[in-house]
Each structure stands twice: as structure tokens, then as C-alpha cells.
Amino acid sequence: MADDGQGTIICHLSYSRMTLSIVIVNYNVKYFLEQCLESVFGSRLTLKESDHKHLQLEVFVVDNASVDGSVEMVRQKFPQVQLIANRDNVGFAKANNQALRLAKGDIMLLLNPDTVVEHDTLARCVDFYSTHPDCGGLAVKMVNGEGVFLKESKRGFPSPAASFFKMSGLVRLFPHSRRIAAYYMGHLSDDETNPVDILPGAFLMISREAMEKVGLLDESYFMYGEDIDFSWRIKLAGFENYYFPQTRIIHYKGECTKHGSMNYVYTFYNAMAIFVNRYFSGGNARLFNLLLRVAIWARASLAWIKRVGQAVALPMVDFAVAFSGFLAIKHLWATCWAANVNYYPAQYTWMVIPCYILLMMACSWLYGGYEKPVKPLRIIKGMAMGCASLLVFYSLLNESQRYSRVLLLLGCGWTLISSLGIRGLLGLMHVPGYGFQSRKRQHCLVVGTPEETARVRQLYEMLGSTHVEATLDANLDSQRLNEAIHCYKADEVIFCSKDLPIQQIIDHMTQLTQLPTRRRQVEFKIAPSESDFIIGSNSIHSTEDLYTEELHTVVSPLNRRNKRLLDVLTSFFLVILSPLLFWPQHRKRSYFQHCWQVMCGKRTWVGTDGIETKPGIFSPEQALTCSVEQISPEVREKLHLRYLRNYKLVNDLQILIKNIWNI
User: Fold this and answer.
1) Which of 250, 256, 322, 361 could form a disulfide with 116 if both were Cys (CB 3.0 to 4.6 A apart)?
2) No. of H helices and E strands in the chain?
């Protein structure tokens, strides 16, 4: 490293012993990680400057206490990887630093596990350093799982104005404005190499010279902000950050935090507050914090209002239509049977009828009547249970409070018919998730060689939910592929990565997305070679789905809701009955603590070690008569798997009753 006399640091890289250190931090994304590593180790490593000199790879995977089998997968399939398995989730910055301290490369790359690199991405990026000696950090063009450009590939300095325009959403209205779109440097072409301020954490390459100058990532950031801080320190050290779009990667953006959630607001604001307090001072820092706080909370509030509105819109329509029908039935019945339109009191109209409808809707909700896609049988079961409950309650009332059993039955029937009718109407209007076509099979096309397409076809036939319409040659161009999509009315296109390089897959996705003649919305997926899973932009299909497709899994929205309801009700009754149940307890100190933790949603009464459930007070093996210590790890794992894949509320109740004195 040398100084050019003007304060600019010049990097000199020697090709004689060029090593690239790649650091991947993983947390419960085993399938994405496997595909990422396959693309990395399948890369062309011959350097442009000298064909007989190759880039040496040094790959680190730092696992932040994943429970999805990621560590075991890396050990089994990628023994050449230097694996660091943390017992706790230490955060993005700290996990990267663990590997960076051990890295020996001349250039280092921070890479997300939910990415796929092109065949020549690594070599081309390293070659870029040789022709740009001022380059400290480097980013490439990123596209999502549909081939759409991700604007966070190039970002500007998060000034108060730029951050405000971004968080307020104004950047969407003026995406190419130098001032308003400064956060994403919208005035710069997506296809031209340019210096930028901020590099994305999903693909952040840095030279060793720059690393030695700026140091490691700041561990004050747990999530969000560390890439902004790191990139800006590279700039402050006299290096240049570059956006290099001549090579691309797929970034699925598999974030675990929703950007509209309050958790995201809290995490993101804390990260930006650290950055502001570090690089701004006095009034500027206070002004920035104020503007940022207003913009973030305004955006989060709007997102929250939107989610709440979407959640309550259908129940409100259901109630309004059911209530109107109830009133019409009451009016007709009172006129025809009692010859008095005012036969029923106002109390019946404005108190009793709403209670009838709300109970019917609540039972429908418990049975999954408000889940998407719509399943009419769930609505029918829920409404039937609600009607039966009302009839039982009606029979217990005294004679003066029994208004009309006929009206009750007719009203319940109307509530059921109107609920089904509303969903059918939404289906006719092509509102996603509604209508009665929930069991419609998906139709897909597989692109690859006969050998690979046959393997993918067999996998999908085993899954049973998707029908492979045709297999297409790997050399098919995008125009003909588009014609095949329309001809077969395909919902999915599967690319076999063994036969098509990632560059060609990205080209297909990008060109199909931009075709003016494209009329069908299709999802693009990739089938990695010699793997039993298929990754898409919004989902992952694996052979594990074979065992969960038709089973009553604990991860289904219906079972998650019912399990939560059981936890709350059980905790409530345990507290109410504590005068009777507390004194015989073997663990008195934890009785009320456990009840409170379950009531607040921090834990569940029965849970497993996996990510599918919250930490449990009790575990599935505690339903057995033998001692837990006598159960082998293999048997324990099978019991947990059976519990997750064939979940029943009665199982939780049995385990809780069996361990009632160990609360």
C-alpha cells in the first residue's frame, strides 16, 4: 500500500499468490446456504491477467446457532469450508468478525447465504481491483428471485434529507432524481460502473489493504447499519467504493424481519442512531434523529394501519352482510308469523343478533375460515359448531329470553351462505387467495437436459402438488420459453442449475420479466444439482414436504392460532386455580413465572428444539411413561418430528396434565 502524494491510498495486488476469503454468516437458511456454496465452489477462478494463475478460495461459514441442520449439512457436503458454529446468535457484525480475524486472503468478501453468484463473478471482481488501484470496496449488480434489479445494489450516503426521502416513500415517486433518490443514487445508471458511497451487506468485497486501514465491522450494530458504517469508513480512509454491474448475483432477500413491523422500526432506528451519533454532531445529529424518527415511525404506522385494515376488512364485510340478512329475516318473520313488524324488541335487534353473528364468525375463525386460500369446508365446520353452541345456549335460557329458534336457525344459515358468497365473489374478481380453487394444482415447465429434468419431474411427482407440463431444452431462448409458458399456461418455471449457468438463468428471468408480450405471472425457481430441494423467490420445496403435505403440521396458521389460544386459556386457568394447584408443585418458584411467560407469548407449554415452535416448558417426550433421561437422542429427535408433523391439541393437553405438578 502506498500514498500517491495527494492523500489517496493506492492498492497494489499481486497475482502471484492471490487468495480470496469469503465469509458467509448463516442463521436457519440451510437450503439457501447449500445453493450459495454450490455456486461459490462452482465458480471459474482463472484470473484475466494471467490464464495460468488461479484464484485461491478460502471459505468461512459462521453459523449463529441455527437449528435447521445447517451445521450438519456444511460438515457433510462441504468439508473444505472452515466452519464456525456459535452456540448463540451473536449478530451479523460479530459473526463476520470472527471469520475476518482468521482470514488470510488478499481480498475478502462478505456474502449473504441467500445469494447465488454467477460463474465468473468472483474472478471478474478480483480482476476489477487490478485495473482500479483506488478501489477499497466493491459491490455488484443484484437481482431478486424474479430477475428484477435490486436498487440497494448502489446506495449514497444516508444524509438527513436522503434518509427522510427514503423512509417517507418519496423516493418511489422520483426514482431517478439526484436529490430525492440520493439514498439509492437513482441518477446513476443501473448498468454502468460508478463510484458509490455505501455497499450492500449481501455482497461486500474489500481489499486487505483497506481492511487493515479501517478495521473490522462495528459490533455495536446487531442487525442493519453495519454495512453503512463499514462502507463509510472505507471512504473516510481514502479508498473508493465501486458499483460494478458487469457481473450479477441473485439475492433472495430472505429477511426474518418485516419492514413494516415495529420490531424492524426499533432495530433499524437504533442502528441508524448509532451511525448518526458517530458521524454527525450537535444540531445536525439532533435534527437527523428527529427527521429519521418521524419518517420511520410514520412509515411503520402506515404499514401497520394497512395490515390491520386488510385483517379486519373481510370480517367487517361478513358482519355487515350477515346483520343485514338477519334484519331482513326478522322483519319477514315478524310480519308473516306475528303480523306485527315490531314484534321483537330493540334489545333483540341490537344486542342478541350481533352476539349470534360474532359467535358464528369466531367459530369460523377458529376452524380456519379466514385463512387463505379459502377452504369452504372449514367455514362450514366452524359455522356448524357456532350454530350448535347457540342452540345449546338457547335451550338453557328461561322462556322470556327465548325469542325464536326459527329465527336463530334461519339467521345462522344466512350467515353461512353470505360468508361463502362473499368469498366466491372475491374469487370471481380474481382477488388472490379467495374463491374456491385452493386445491388447484400448479403447472410448471422444467428447463434442462433430459437427465436433470427427469429428476426434477420425479421430485415434483412425489410432492404431488405440482404437475410438470413439459420439459424444455437447456438451450431454449427466452422468446420461445415465453411462448411455452403461454402454451402450457404454466405457473412456474424450474431451471436446472447443473445444465444452465446462473448467468443464463438470470438472463432468462430478466428478459421474461421485461417482455412486453408477457401476460402470465410465473414464479421462477432453481433446482440445484444433486439436491432434493427447489428454491424459489417466495418458497422452498424439498422432499421433507412429502411428509407434511397432507399432515396436520404445527406450522399451519390454524394450528399456530389454536395452540396459542390453548396456551393463553391454560395459563389463565392455572392462575385462577393457583390456590389449589400451587402448593403441591415440585417447582414452586417457577409456577407463576412459567404462566406469565406463556401468557405473554415468550414460551409455549409444549415445544421442541426447532424453530417451528417457541421454547417449551415441556417437550414431546414428556408424554412417555419412562424417564426422559432414558431416551436416546435419536428417539428424542423422532418424537419431536412426529409431534411437529402430526400436531393435535389433545397431545399438548395430555402432556400438560401428566406434568401438572411440575409447572
Assistant:
1) 250
2) 21, 19
